[in-house]
Amino acid sequence: MKSLDELKLIAFDLDGTLVDSAPDLALAINAMLVDLGREVFDELTVRHWVGNGAEVLIKRALSGCSTVDNTLPESLYRQARGLFEQHYCENLCIASRLYDGVAESLATFSQRNIPMAIVTNKPSLFTPGLLKQIGIADYFDVVLSGDSLARKKPDPLPLQHLLDHYQLANQQMMMVGDSKNDIQAAKAVGCRSLGLTYGYNYGEDIALSGPDFVADSLVELVELIDGSVTA
Asked: Which residues are annotated as a binding site?
């Protein structure tokens, strides 16, 4: 088993990793589309558009597919962005929920005094409110949103920022996420990574991105740290 003895910090993605936020994102996206007089989409479709931040999500919805239409008028995007932000801010945590195993795992890490941080591509307009409303805000020492720094995942900048902030060696941090963006960022900065099999990874098997560990639940990370399972 790859040793986790030196683990000093766990960085978590948010959407698709800790929180199943797709239901409320879909509600906000569809409310935006209705306001614009455009076709709406089912939740499953919207789930496949989540993971690269609000701008890409909105542009995918306007394009009606996973491929962003770069010919969309900027004025249309700006109008759509304003509508989406309004609807989502008003409904951050209506149907969103913590994934199974998240609440007890975060509590365990906290009890063991393992520092935890959030590294998400979600805009800072939404991140603190969602963390607070869903009841996990107090677990995290640092929260980095998609617009907190000059670049977001899969760029390694947010993870490098955490290493510098905590004055850690790269192998002392683990990135936990559901998307190839999380694993690519971890690889680029040289830290460990755990890929979760659920969440929003565009229908791809997270194992294809080559994380150090693959898990079906966050509880498995507790077990890995305890040395009770092998990888």
From this structure: 13, 15, 178
Which positions are catalytic? 13
pLDDT digits (tens, 9 = 90+) for 79-114: 999 999 999 999 999 999 999 999 999 999 999 999
Taken in order of first residue, the domains within the chain and their CATH numbers are 9-20+97-226 (3.40.50.1000), 22-90 (1.10.150.240)
Answer whether the bond into residue 154 is a cis peptide, omega within 30°: yes
* 99: DSSP letter: P
Question: Secondary structure of the chain: what % helix, strand, coil (to 5)?
Answer: 45, 15, 45
| Residues in the annotated binding site for Mg(2+) | 13, 15, 178
Share of the chain above pLDDT 70, in %: 97
Q: Is the distance from CB of 82 to CB of 54 less than 8 angstroms?
A: no
Torsions phi, psi of 104, nearest 5? -70, -35
pTM of the predicted structure, to 2 decimals: 0.92
First to last CA, the chain: 5
